[in-house]
Structure formats: structure tokens, C-alpha cells
Amino acid sequence: MTERIIRIATALIRDADGKILLVRKRGTRAFMQPGGKIDPGETPLQALLRELQEEIALHLKPADLVDLGTFAAPAANEPGFTVEAALFAVTRTVSPSVQAEIEEAAWVDPADPGTIVLAPLTRDYVLPLCAALNAEGPMAETDCGDVLTRLQNPL
């Protein structure tokens, strides 16, 4: 049987108020983190740096990102597939600009995303992570790993 996994790299981008940047690709309904597919020969970090530049005009360096781990969820736009997502936190303030295949971007409160359609990865992993981070108060993105561990392994 053919493996039905799509390997992607995505960015967790929060603003000073704890809102998360989500994007919607042209011709789709679900909002998700910026990022995209990892090309052959690319590392997840290389793929993410390329995708952020292409999609939202962010020119980041590897030092601007913290690896939060890899997560799997049903693909939002490709039925029957699973995304295996390398998730990275962006550690500096950014000003994204929608371009390429991105139709729309929104800063969303992770505790109350409203009525927008969310990709399963965003809904099941990223928003709970952000809500937990915001509930703990101001903290460095490098502390995300501890929060993720607690979310995945509740006491």
C-alpha cells in the first residue's frame, strides 16, 4: 500500500497579544499555519524558510526559529492523506505580507478562534499549545517544548 503522508514544515507565529498568524490558501476553506511541503533534498528548516519567504514575504534566519517537534494530523486540503508537520516557533516580531498562493491571513485568538474553518493540525495541536502558552503569561518561545510535553502527556 502506498504511504499517504505529506511532509510539511510550518511556523507558529504569535504577536505580542498572544494571537497566532493563520493563512488560507487560494481555493481552500481551512486556515492553517504558514508553511508548506518539504521538497526532495530539503530539511524541514530549509523548507520552512523558503515557504515563509514565498507565502508571506518573511526573510528569516535559522536562528529565528525554534524546533517544537513533529506532529501528524489529517490533511486539510487533500482527503485521505495525513500531514506530518515539523512545527517551528518564530522567535521575533514579524510583519507578514500575503503573496503567492495565499488568499488571506488572519491573527487569531487561540482561545477563541471564532467561526473560521481550521485545519486539523491547527485545531488539535497548535491552538491548544498557544492557548496554554498565553495562560502561563509572557514566556520565551523556547519554553514551548515544556508546554507541548504537558499537553501531550497530561498528568
From TrEMBL:
Residues 3-131 form the Nudix hydrolase domain. It holds the Pfam family NUDIX. One of its GO terms (molecular function) is hydrolase activity. The keyword NADP does not apply. Keywords: Hydrolase. Its cofactor is Mg(2+). Gene3D superfamilies: Nucleoside Triphosphate Pyrophosphohydrolase. The keyword Hydrolase applies. PROSITE patterns: NUDIX. CDD domains: NUDIX_Hydrolase. This is DNA mismatch repair protein MutT. It comes from Acetobacter oeni.
